[in-house]
Structure formats: C-alpha cells, structure tokens
C-alpha cells in the first residue's frame, strides 16, 4: 500500500503501535517451521534482539492450517523435526498433523519464542539502510529492523480453480487447507477435486463416512507408505538413549538422500521406483479399467511421488467414484467434468493445492528498486536460494529453489536459518548480493534442472513457474549439496556450484 493510500485511511483503522519496539535487529515474518528455525538460529549466534510476527492465532504454519481428516506428513517423523529438538514420542513412522502442530507449539514454548500473534505484515520496504515493516492486527504499527527474514511458507495460499459456476455451488464448499469443521459430511455426497498429496490422505478418511466422487485431472505416482506405530518399548528406548534416536535420524536421512536419484531422473533408479509403484497399483486395484485410469502417463518423479496404502483400496472398494477428468464447470449442485460426466453432490472439497510460484508476500516487500514480485516477474530467483539482489539484508526461507521432493524440507530450512544467522553475526551492516552472483546461481539451477523430470517429464507440477517454464520452487540437488552450497566460509555471498548429488 502506498504512503498516499495510507494517509487516506479513515481515522481508527490505523491504530498507533502497541507493544512494538521502534527498532530491532531482525524481524522474522511467520512462526511455522521456518520462523521458529530462524529464531533458534539467531539465538544460537547470540542474537536476541529480534521479533517474530505471525498473522495466525498460533504457531504451526502448514500444520496449524491443514486440519483435514487424515492430515499427516509424508516424510518420516524423526527426520521431520528440528535437529536440536528430537522427539522420542512420535507415534509412528509418519507423524499426524496434530502431533506436528503440538510439537511446534512445544518447541516454541521450550525455546521461549513468543511471536506477536494475529499480526500481519502489511508491507516492508528498504529505506536507506533499514527495513520498515508495517503491521496490522493485534500489534499494528511500524517497526524498523536491520534485517528481514521472510519465513512466510510456500504452500499457504489456497489455489482455487478457475471453474465457471464454482461460486454458485449452493452447498458447503471449502479448500482442504481451510477445512470447515462445522459442516457435517457424514452421509453426504462429497466431491473431492484433485489427486495430490492432500487428496490421497483425505479421500480414504472421507470415504469412511461420506459418498465420495473424486475428480482426477492427472493420476499420481503412488508408492507404498508402509507406516507403522512405534511401540511403547521403542519410544522408551528413544527416550532413554538419545544415541538410538540420532542413529535412526541418520539412517532416515541417508534413505532420503538415496531417493534423490529416482526423483531426479536417474534412469535405473526411476525405473526401479516406477516398477514398485506399478506393482503397488496392480496389487491394490484388480479392476483393469480402474487401474488404467489411475496409471500416470508421465515420468516418475515429475510430480511429487505420493505415499499411500489406503488410497487405491478406497477407490477399489467402490466406496469412491472416480471421475478421471478435471472439474470443468459447476451448474447448481451438479459438477460437470471435462469428460462430460455429471455428478450431483451436497458438498465440495477443493484439494487443489496452493499458489506456489507467485507468493503473496512478494507483493509486500519493496527493496532498493522494486518489489519482490516485480523482481520475480518471470519466476523466483535468488542467490543460495536465500538472498536476493536488490534486497539488502533480506533472507527468504523456504522460498526460491528450497523445496524438496525426496527428503525433509526441515533440513533445508535449518541450513538456510543457520546461514542467515551466521551472516548476521559475522557481517553486521548492510549486506548486498551481487546481481551477477544471482544470475550465475539461477543459470546453475536451470542447468541442473534441464534434464530432470520436473522440467521435461511431461507433467504439470507446482515446482515450475508457468510464466518462464523455470524450476523455481524445487532445489535440484541433494540436501548434502545444499548444505555445502550454504556453507560458504562464514556466510559470505560467494558464487557457488550446485552439485547434482550421486547419479
Ligand atoms: P497439489 O499437489 O498441488 O495437488 C492439487 C491437485 O488439484 C492436483 O491433482 C491438480 O491436478 C488438482 N486440480 C487442480 N484443479 C483441478 C480441476 N479443475 N479439476 C481436477 N483437479 C484439479 O496440492 P496438495 O494440497 O495435494 O499437496 C501440496 C503439497 O503438500 C504436496 O506436494 C506436499 O508437499 C504437501 P493436476 O495434477 O495439476 O492436473
């Protein structure tokens, strides 16, 4: 919002700052995994003079927002937590969403990280050596900070499909990340739109109580989940001996890194993993026509590979009607598929994913010349997946080229947070990244991505920016390679080479 429009605001809508210090060393925006990691990393470097602002009513990010039935993580629990906060009590190999949310609440408490809740960043601008961050909500006002850390998440803004008539649907309709717990779906005819990571968790649970019609535009590659609960004895051993847990974490890390080959296009590894997925499908879906409809026609790894042992059985059992085409139009309570199929339902769940490539925070942040959105008008770019030319003293966590398809994102976030904190501690003052370094880094990313299935695998995925066809979300390497990239001798902004990892 411009100064001008701010001055036009009616009295009373821009209350004086409350509880906001005039100036801090750093402002962290967001209190999910990335925001908490940033806060801990700053503390570890002896930096206490920071503020965390959070637009929601509590910490937790993704795990606060996603409360759909069956919500869980598809990365092993003991790898999906902070390295300095192992949790011996995870219930099983994969943690449920509510457990992860509780874990984040607990860590925030233990670390005495108290974000300013219900406080939204209106905008942030670089003003001659300082970031001026304007906030609305519970702690409205302006705060000056030397450094701005954006930890706003990457899959936060629901993507609502542009389908004619959608807004006129007469019954309950909501996005999977905004689950309406006041709506009783028991016995209802419910359409689920989408077959991504959310839908494969949600559909089997919903099918237990409702009559589900699933709109599948593109089938996913799905491999066995092989989830299991940890026994009380195992959890006791994790508690009693931290070395047991550390070993398990190391094993899970190595398994994750090994998965990179199959996801990134190594021919043999992809063929082996594809065979596992096809066997899984064959074993769980005896009906040939259904099996054909569920078989992807694009390269393994092009989209996020999903883990489920319950999705195919739900479809196979007849509990779910598969509409193997996109939702194309809505006419009253009838959903019209691209195939021409018509389905009359009582409620609609949009499991249609998120605005990943054009992050809403990008419009709000103005650097030396422009907004992040303008700088990223052909897709997100960065140096080190973390800093951006023209945006001094800004760190973006889990933003450009920082996601993973093969291993835990928390590992990436921790590497970025450590890098940012190290840089702050060792290089006070104004820190700029050379635009040439950002260009070179972007070229490296493009080169590394070119031959991967994410770019050339014949699918549409949320890792690629449609405006440029560039891989802008995913890191096209291993976690080891990312860690090496950011381990730049004390946080200097040095040009780097991206290693593709073992091939
Ligand atoms: P995703 O993975 O972005 O999935 C969204 C799904 O919605 C995907 O299958 C889309 O099909 C589908 N979609 C979108 N519009 C339509 C229409 N009009 N008709 C039918 N289907 C449609 O989001 P998720 O929430 O499942 O997962 C997000 C991430 O969370 C996940 O990758 C993990 O990292 C955790 P498409 O495949 O584009 O053809």
From TrEMBL:
Q: Which domain of life is it from?
A: Bacteria
Ranges for region Disordered: 1-21
Q: Give the matching Pfam families.
A: Pyr_redox_3 (PF13738)
Q: What is this protein called?
A: NAD(P)/FAD-dependent oxidoreductase
The uppermost taxa in this organism's lineage are: Bacteria, Bacillati, Actinomycetota, Actinomycetes, Micrococcales
């Amino acid at each position: 919002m411009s100064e001008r429009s701010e001055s036009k605001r009616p009295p009373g809508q821009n209350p004086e700052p409350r509880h906001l210090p005039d100036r801090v060393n750093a402002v962290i925006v967001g209190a999910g995994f990335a925001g908490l990691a940033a806060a801990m990393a700053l503390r570890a470097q002896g930096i206490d003079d920071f503020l965390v602002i959070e637009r929601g009513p509590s910490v937790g990010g993704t795990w606060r927002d996603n409360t759909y039935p069956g919500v869980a993580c598809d990365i092993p629990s003991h790898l999906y937590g902070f390295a300095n906060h192992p949790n011996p009590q995870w219930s099983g190999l994969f943690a449920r969403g509510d457990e992860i949310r509780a874990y984040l609440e607990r860590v925030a408490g233990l670390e005495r990280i108290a974000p300013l809740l219900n406080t939204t960043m209106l905008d942030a601008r670089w003003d001659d050596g300082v970031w001026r961050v304007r906030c609305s909500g519970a702690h409205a006002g302006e705060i000056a900070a030397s450094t701005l850390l954006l930890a706003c998440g990457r899959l936060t803004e629901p993507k609502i499909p542009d389908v004619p008539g959608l807004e006129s649907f007469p019954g309950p309709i909501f996005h999977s990340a905004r689950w309406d717990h006041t709506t009783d779906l028991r016995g209802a005819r419910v359409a689920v739109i989408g077959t991504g990571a959310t839908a494969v968790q949600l559909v089997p649970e919903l099918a237990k109580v409702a009559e589900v019609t699933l709109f599948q535009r593109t089938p996913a590659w799905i491999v066995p989940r092989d989830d299991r609960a940890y026994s009380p004895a195992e959890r006791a051993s994790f508690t009693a001996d931290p070395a047991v847990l550390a070993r398990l974490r190391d094993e899970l890390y190595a398994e994750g890194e090994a998965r990179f080959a199959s996801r990134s296009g190594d021919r043999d590894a992809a063929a082996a993993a594809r065979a596992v997925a096809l066997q899984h499908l064959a074993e769980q879906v005896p009906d040939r026509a259904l099996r054909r409809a569920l078989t992807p026609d694009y390269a393994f790894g092009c989209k996020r590979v999903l883990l489920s042992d319950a999705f195919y059985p739900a479809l196979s059992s007849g509990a779910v009607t598969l509409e193997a085409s996109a939702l194309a139009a809505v006419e009253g309570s009838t959903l019209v598929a691209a195939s021409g199929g018509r389905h009359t339902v009582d409620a609609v769940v949009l499991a249609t994913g998120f605005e990943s490539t054009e992050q809403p925070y990008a419009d709000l942040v103005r650097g030396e010349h422009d907004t992040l959105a303008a700088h990223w008008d052909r897709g997100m770019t960065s140096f080190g997946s973390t800093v951006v030319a023209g945006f001094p003293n800004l760190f973006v966590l889990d933003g450009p080229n920082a996601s993973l398809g093969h291993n835990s994102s928390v590992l990436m976030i921790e590497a970025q947070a450590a890098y940012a904190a190290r840089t702050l501690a060792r290089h006070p003052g104004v820190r700029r990244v050379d635009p040439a370094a950002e260009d070179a880094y972007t070229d490296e990313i493009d080169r590394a991505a070119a031959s991967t299935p994410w770019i050339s695998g014949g699918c549409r995925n949320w890792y690629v920016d449609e405006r440029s066809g560039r891989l802008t979300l995913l890191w096209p390497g291993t976690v080891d390679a990312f860690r090496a990239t950011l381990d730049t001798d004390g946080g200097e902004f040095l040009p780097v080479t991206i290693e593709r990892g073992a091939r």
